[in-house]
Amino acid sequence: xxxxxxxxxxxxxxxxxxxxxxxxxxxxxxxxxxxxxxxxxxxxxxxxxxxxxxxxxxxxxxxxxxxxxxxxxxxxxxxxxxxxxxxxxxxxxxxxxxxxxxxxxxxxxxxxxxxxxxxxxxxxxxxxxxxxxxxx
Length: 136
What we know:
By secondary structure, the chain is mostly beta strands. Helix content is about 10%, strand content about 35%. Strands 1, 2, 3, 4, 5, 6 and 7 form a 7-stranded mixed beta sheet that branches. The model has no long low-confidence stretch (mean pLDDT about 90).
């Protein structure tokens, strides 16, 4: 999916989460992202994949944000220790709308600004960004 095809108002909130490549299976098997601390209610999630990828390569529409202990996941919570950074029961899981997780055909490449932690941007900036510098 192209970023230009994302529906929503330009001021819709997009949460940008960093992940290593080994976090991609979690995204796909759970149609969610976790275990995180989220202090706002974004409409979308963008996933910045670190390492050799170095780009925001995935996007999904948020359905709900639930406590990790209440999330319906493909495996037990404890099985994710090691897969996700510092799992603890106080963190949350961002659940995506069904069939809304897409790999971007036009990922947002790294320039100089790296999202080392959760960052927020707006959908208008996300759609038109040439590099990560435009959304961070």
